[in-house]
């Protein structure tokens, strides 16, 4: 960056800008340290919370239950230093731990840089970044908004990791998300970033608009519920909150709506349909990366924090683009995004296994013979 900013001028050389640009390196390193540490904690949450264990206390080896030393618990690099094995029992430790730490760290680092340097958020004062005096502009609104987004990203990652493992979302996690995200927006309306209305003045600011914050929360939750039911045709086949409120498919639907509510609160109801379409496309790509045992809802759950981070990073250019639904967009743009979302269950459809009593006669007989063969093999 120092070389790029000093080219074409004789007033200063790259060496004159090294100390200035060192500030950028410090900010990026600090953000990655915080983000990867959050990722390390989310590994604990994803393992312990579905098992009703406390998330407090030091991390330990899942093989021999030995507590990890402080230097071994260093995010990402601790696992690399141990070469993926426990220092005590020398048994392998899953590479999932550093992968999650790195993924969360990178996502929070990118979002933090984009917001501290005012590169991503709409309705925000901008400044030129091309010269040697490129510095972050931080005030209370920026810090509160960044903290809110970091919490939302962390909660979205936690939900994705738990659902990827096939566990239903713990009630403690859903309650924490509701308190942090809904309560945070009602207390600090600044974190709305964009309004809940479709038409606002060009100089719109969210400071002090508590009534608008209430409407923003209501519209976001209604949109998440409605669009979640649309996706349920593929991800939660058979869900029926009225006739089967405690059924497995209904629980999957509730988890789906909860995961969708996070980007709905952060980004607003206007762009939610387009965000979910992008998330559905990312879900298809994750099929080649995640374990084959991960079901479609688990893949979609991991796609949600990735989509949320990308949406925040490119929020300003997308907000100004005519094809992306947002406040000020044409109703036809919103309807087009909603129509595209209606087609996503065709490629996100979860494979459904029916019991023998509802299968056709020939399939039921084949199912019974397969069960008999498996019983003989077990005996």
UniProtKB/TrEMBL annotation:
Q: What is this protein called?
A: A24 family peptidase
Please report a single Pfam family linked to this protein: A24_N_bact
**Highest taxon listed in the record's lineage:** Bacteria
Q: Which UniProt keywords apply?
A: Membrane, Transmembrane, Transmembrane helix
The Prepilin peptidase A24 N-terminal domain sits at 34-111
Region described as Disordered: 359-379
Q: Does the keyword Manganese apply?
A: no
Species this chain originates from: Novipirellula rosea
Which sequence ranges are marked TM in the entry? 27-47, 99-120, 140-161, 173-194, 214-237, 272-290, 297-318
- Keyword Transmembrane annotated: yes
Lineage of producing organism = Bacteria, Pseudomonadati, Planctomycetota, Planctomycetia, Pirellulales
Q: Which InterPro entries match?
A: Prepilin_pept_A24_N, Prepilin_peptidase/N-MTase
């Amino acid at each position: 960056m120092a070389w790029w900013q000093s080219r074409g001028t004789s007033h200063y050389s790259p060496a004159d800008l090294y100390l200035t640009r060192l500030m950028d390196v410090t900010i990026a390193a600090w953000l990655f340290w915080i983000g990867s540490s959050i990722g390390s904690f989310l590994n604990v949450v994803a393992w312990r919370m579905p098992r009703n264990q406390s998330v407090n206390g030091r991390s330990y080896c899942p093989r021999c239950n030995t507590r990890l030393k402080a230097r071994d618990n260093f995010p990402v690099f601790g696992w690399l230093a141990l070469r993926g094995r426990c220092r005590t029992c020398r048994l392998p430790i899953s590479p999932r731990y550093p992968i999650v730490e790195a993924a969360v760290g990178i996502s929070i680092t990118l979002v933090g840089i984009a917001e501290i340097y005012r590169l991503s958020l709409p309705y925000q004062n901008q400044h030129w970044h091309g010269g040697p005096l490129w510095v972050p502009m931080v005030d209370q609104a920026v810090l509160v908004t960044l903290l809110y987004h970091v919490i939302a990203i962390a909660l979205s990652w936690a939900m994705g990791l738990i659902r990827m493992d096939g566990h239903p979302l713990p009630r403690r996690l859903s309650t924490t998300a509701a308190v942090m995200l809904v309560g945070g927006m009602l207390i600090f309306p600044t974190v709305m970033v964009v309004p809940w209305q479709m038409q606002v003045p060009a100089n719109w600011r969210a400071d002090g608009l508590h009534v608008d914050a209430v409407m923003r929360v209501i519209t976001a939750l209604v949109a998440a519920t409605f669009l979640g039911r649309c996706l349920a045709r593929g991800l939660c086949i058979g869900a029926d909150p009225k006739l089967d409120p405690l059924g497995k498919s209904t629980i999957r639907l509730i988890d789906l709506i909860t995961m969708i509510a996070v980007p709905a609160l952060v980004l607003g109801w206007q762009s939610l349909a387009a965000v979910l379409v992008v998330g559905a496309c990312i879900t298809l790509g994750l099929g080649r990366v995640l374990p084959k045992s991960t079901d479609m809802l688990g893949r979609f759950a991991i796609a949600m924090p990735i989509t949320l981070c990308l949406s925040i990073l490119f929020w300003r250019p997308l907000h100004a683009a005519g094809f992306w639904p947002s406040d000020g967009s044409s109703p036809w743009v919103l309807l087009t995004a909603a129509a595209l979302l209606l087609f996503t269950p065709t490629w996100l459809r979860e494979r459904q296994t029916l019991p023998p009593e509802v299968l056709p006669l020939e399939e039921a007989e084949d199912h019974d013979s397969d069960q008999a063969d498996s019983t003989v093999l077990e005996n």
